[in-house]
Amino acid sequence: MEYWTYIFLRMASLPEGSISFGKPYIPEIQADRLAIPLEKSPFLCVSKGETVEKVKVERELLESSWREVDFSVQEALVDSVTSYKPSCDSVSEARVLLLGPVGAGKSSFISSVHSVFTGRVTNRAMVGTASTSFTQKVEQQNNARHFQSFPIRRRGESGDQSTALVLCDAMGLGTGDMTGLTLHDVLAVIKGHAPEGHKFSSDQALRAETVGYVKKPSAREKMHCVAFVVDATKIDSYGKGMGFTFQQLRQHISDLGVHQVALLTHVDQLCPETAHDITKVYRSRLVQRTMEKAAALLGMSMSYIVPVKNYSCELDVDEHTNTLLLCAVQHILQYVELYFQDLTEPRVSQSGFSDALCRSTSVGLAKTA
Prior knowledge:
Number of helices: 9
Number of strands: 16
Largest sheet: 6 strands, antiparallel
Distance between the termini: 26 Å
Strand order of the largest sheet: 3-2-5-6-1-4
Order of helices and strands: EEEEEEEHEHEEEHEEHEHHEHHHE
Structural class: alpha/beta
Shape: globular
Mean pLDDT: 79
Strand content: 15-25%
């Protein structure tokens, strides 16, 4: 079933609180959005007190996808990511730091990627809500959070097989130094100074005196890419302060030579179409508009941003959800490789990255139209 969304225009009179399709009206409509089945007329009327408006509706779905993704190549994507090796001789794993507001879906993304490679839904990273984020744990009294690394392993008949991908999670971002991870600590993590399991605290910065502090981090201890994570359903509620935080972070991270991408989570909750069928994500008008807003919030081009659906209430993995998650992983690894190319000439023939990971439409990688 396809749906319409609506735009308000003025018109003539109907009973207060009513909606009409030119037939008996539907009273007491309170929602800001209304999903209307396509068999209904694309015009309706809404009354608000003495003001009556005509509603002109438009299709929820675009006629064609604005990015192309092949949702039938899950196994090829899994094999491609599993076989990936960094093109830098001194590095054996690609380390990616996830940054975003509390509750944006960082921990859920880690668990969802892990679920893809194990074949069943698992919560490897503890997942919470905006008020009980996984990284909050029990240290509420001193606002401490943990820095944790999660190597991604593929489960097979002969046992687990390590991939070269490590996803790293830390304290959620706030709009100031006292409400989330500080700029100083973010940069210290990216430079490789943070020890595994470090507890972040807004009143105790990560410094050389910190227990476990890595004074001279090697390339393998540094972050090779940063993935910002934003919640599609909250994009309009992120204020100017969060936008400033993102763009300040991006400027300083870029100064370190580290590339950044962004993940737009919870796109399945934006509209009925993506909730019913995630393969329509790049035909959803609302997802496209939300990605435009995310690009403005982050101060980056839409070509850096990919939508994902994290596993939440499901018990079993789904091929289409897996494919979208794997496309996000590929997207991240491409920018990891740009970082390595700045360090040394890539070993394309050995890593197979260009052959296996950059075949966009053949293995499902989204291309910007």
